[in-house]
Amino acid sequence: MNVFEAVKQSVTTRQAAERYGMKVNRNGMCVCPFHNDRNPSMKVDRRFYCFGCGATGDVIDFVARLYGLPGLEAAKKLASDFGISYD
């Protein structure tokens, strides 16, 4: 299993958002870090979608965009931060 498959099977976008300091309410909504947002407009679960700016994707896309990383580096960061092993 490669790093992308391992991460996507093990971590949800909600778990990553909470791990990296975002407050997610009980409905799975949070303030979007990708635009000037004051009210929760981003839905996070396995994937994410912002109703304000249209940002969307999976957990790797989320971390890549959040930290300005290429996809592979974002996947490796998630694997490291969540203790996920891969081949």
* Secondary-structure element order, N to C: HHEEEEHH
Indicate the overall shape: elongated
- Characterize the main sheet: 4 strands, antiparallel
How would you state the average pLDDT, rounded?
A: 97
User: Helix/strand-derived class?
Assistant: alpha+beta
Strand order of the largest sheet: 1-2-3-4
* Span between termini: 6 Å
Can you tell me the residue ranges where pLDDT is under 50 for at least 5 consecutive residues? none
What is Rg?
12 Å
Estimate percent helicity. Answer: 40-55%
Number of strands: 4
**With helices defined by DSSP (H or I, 4 residues minimum), what is the helix count?**
4
Q: Roughly what fraction of the amino acids lie in strands?
A: 5-15%
Give a written overview of the molecule.
- The longest helix has 12 residues, at 71-82.
- The model has no long low-confidence stretch (mean pLDDT 97).
- This protein is elongated.
- Strand 2 (42-44) and strand 3 (48-50) form a beta hairpin.
- It has 87 residues and is of the alpha+beta class.
- It has a four-stranded antiparallel β-sheet with strand order 1-2-3-4.
- It is built from four helices and four strands, in the order H-H-E-E-E-E-H-H.
- It has helices spanning 3-10, 13-19, 59-67, 71-82; strands at 29-30, 42-44, 48-50, 56-57.
- Helix 1 packs across helix 4 and helix 3 packs across helix 4 (71-82).
List keywords for this structure.
alpha+beta; 4 helices; about 90 residues
Task: Characterize this entry briefly.
This protein is of the alpha+beta class and 87 residues long.
